[in-house]
Design goal:
By secondary structure, this protein is of the alpha/beta class. The protein has eight helices and 16 strands.
Length: 350
């Protein structure tokens, strides 16, 4: 796999500065060259790092594969989407990276999506408004990819605004589809990894000491699934469908692989209209949202209240004993080290 370096950052010294006026504050920021100023521990508290670092989302470079065989995924990529025909964030990012994909939409919205996407990028569902969230679309995608003869498929949410690589204390965007190809290579090495994917960027700190991958945990939003008959499980439920599917694989002794050195920067669902935002933003549903997963998996799920809201808490420790089984006789594939290339990036556009 591409190299990965992640060390916990140690600070030489932390200095707290108290300023009397707004003019003093602005002058201090200018003199310190703290263009990357960001909010810290309070409404009027800010922090910055010396020497200054490029803020994530405004870098002038991107990671790209140094070999043409690894610039694109080898398995089909599906984006499930609803009511977001004017805000196709994931589709935009994949197109910029030269990654082929299909946006899966309900028939009543086909004409609206055609206004922003080429016809060849749209896959129309044979049903609409079933009242089951994204579950019917997810099961349709699994059937569609299997019928096409693909060994695996990607299923992505439609609100991913960037794909990035983390290494050596830096977070730069990817310039092609290397992140997908790397995850595919990891999963294909084993007979019992039916589910893999990319972590959320917000869960992988710039210098947080994270390993390149986390084994046997949940996979969210950027998911690679096996199409083997033995791995075909039905998406189910109304909430927590990705956590439920991860747990069902883990409970039967399989492994999951969550990639930390390649991540996706996903918009929080309830902050963006469309998709499942209405389901998850209903305040009265928060406890039911958590309780539904506990009913499905009472042995490993508890329900707690934090920050004034109900949450589910999953215990993944029992699954640490699940071990990946290597494919017998499979030739080792070495992914060449990516290179940094100049890119046009402004607020998340690569």
């Amino acid at each position: 796999m591409p190299s990965h370096s992640s060390t916990v950052e140690t600070l030489f010294r932390t200095v707290h500065v108290h300023l009397a006026t707004e003019d003093d504050y602005r002058d201090f920021v200018r003199r310190m060259g703290a263009d990357g100023l960001r909010k810290g521990g309070g409404m009027n508290s800010y922090s910055f790092h010396l020497p200054p670092r490029e803020p994530v989302g405004w870098q002038s470079k991107a990671w790209a594969s140094s070999h043409s065989d690894f610039t694109r995924p080898q398995y089909p990529v599906y984006i499930i989407s609803k009511v977001r025909y004017r805000n196709q964030q994931t589709a935009r990012q994949l197109a910029r990276r030269g990654v082929d994909f299909a946006v899966v939409v309900e028939p009543q919205e086909e004409s609206l999506y055609r206004e922003t996407l080429p016809a060849g990028r749209i896959l129309v569902l044979p049903f609409s408004d079933l009242g089951q969230g994204s579950i019917p679309a997810r099961n349709f995608v699994w059937n569609h990819a299997t019928a096409a003869g693909a060994r695996r498929h990607w299923i992505l949410d439609d609100n991913i605004k960037e794909f990035r690589r983390h290494t050596a204390g830096t977070i730069y965007p990817t310039g092609d589809g290397l992140c997908f190809r790397a995850v595919e290579e990891m999963a294909d090495r084993y007979t019992n990894v039916p589910m893999a994917g990319l972590n959320y960027q917000k869960f992988v700190a710039r210098n947080g000491g994270r390993p390149p991958v986390t084994m046997n945990t949940r996979i969210y939003s950027m998911i690679l699934l096996s199409n083997k008959p033995k791995d075909r499980l039905m998406w189910r439920g109304r909430y927590n469908e990705d956590t439920d599917l991860s747990l069902r694989f883990l409970k039967r002794g399989d492994c999951t692989i969550l990639c930390n050195h390649f991540t996706g920067d996903k918009v929080t669902t309830i902050t963006m209209s469309g998709g499942n935002a209405d389901i998850y933003s209903e305040t009265d549903n928060r406890q039911e949202f958590a309780e539904s997963l506990r009913r499905q998996h009472p042995d490993v799920v508890s329900v707690i209240k934090k920050w004034g809201r109900w949450h589910h808490l999953v215990n993944y420790r029992p699954f640490m004993r699940n071990k990946p089984v290597a494919v017998p006789g499979r030739a080792r594939v070495i992914i060449p080290e990516p290179v940094l290339i100049p890119c046009r990036l402004a607020g998340g556009d690569s």
